[in-house]
Amino acid sequence: MNDVLSLLAYGDAGWGDEILSGVGITVSLSLATLPLGLGLGLLLALAKRAEDPALRLSANIYTTIFRGLPELLTLFLVYYGGQSLINSAFGAAGLPALTISSFIAGMIALGMVFSAFASEVFLSAFQAIPAGQAEAGRSLGLHRFAIFYKITFPQLARHALPGLSNCWQNLLKDTALVSVIGLADILRQTSIAARVTREPFLFFGLACVLFLILTFVSGAGIARLERWSNRGVMAR
């Protein structure tokens, strides 16, 4: 028991500070990716509902690609392929090479995947809102943005929240993939500790516990948010 506590101690004698910093990186990456994925997912859902067939086709192609590709492959394409393309363009323009950090690459890649799934959630939520409500808003003289902001969006958020909570839980787990491109998240820090100390069961077990704690905390927060969003809604 003392050996375990010494390995998990905070400071030079143990790995507690490194693992705690990995938790911070995992949470930071998840929170940074969330608004990117939500915003892009909402735009994709709006594009799928647009009257322009080219816009609908483009949105459907995007979601088909990033829902079908493995998340790890998407991460490699962004981190290695995207960096190569950008530097080729910069080189042609006479600009210095640009290095994409593993954090930014992870945020972009996971955000693209998240947005593809979130767009389907938003699309289903749009379909759950009666069309007559928007028509009522137009009859009152409200412009399109006011109808969306005051009538459609509050209901859209309530209907989409359960599905988006599943997307968030998947995002939280997918952050472990960024360890392969050098980001010092939970999995990378525990992997290093397991290799150096030759205690894989201890440190990988700790990684499992940490991800489960983050999942339970997120679940509790989402449940509270769902209760808040459903306030005033009559039970059926």
Automatic annotation (TrEMBL):
Transmembrane recorded as keyword: yes
Gene3D superfamilies in the cross-refs: MetI-like (1.10.3720.10)
Topology of this chain in the membrane: Multi-pass membrane protein
Major location (coarse): membrane
Signal peptide residue numbers: none
Pfam families tied to this protein: BPD_transp_1
Subcellular location: Cell inner membrane; Cell membrane
Domain ABC transmembrane type-1: 23-222
Keywords on record: Cell inner membrane, Cell membrane, Membrane, Transmembrane, Transmembrane helix, Transport
Transmembrane segments: 20-47, 59-80, 100-123, 201-223
Record-linked PANTHER family: ARGININE ABC TRANSPORTER PERMEASE PROTEIN ARTQ, CATIONIC AMINO ACID TRANSPORTER, MEMBRANE COMPONENT
Family listed: Belongs to the binding-protein-dependent transport system permease family. HisMQ subfamily.
Protein name from the UniProt record: Amino acid ABC transporter membrane protein 1, PAAT family
Lineage, opening ranks: Bacteria, Pseudomonadati, Pseudomonadota, Alphaproteobacteria, Hyphomicrobiales
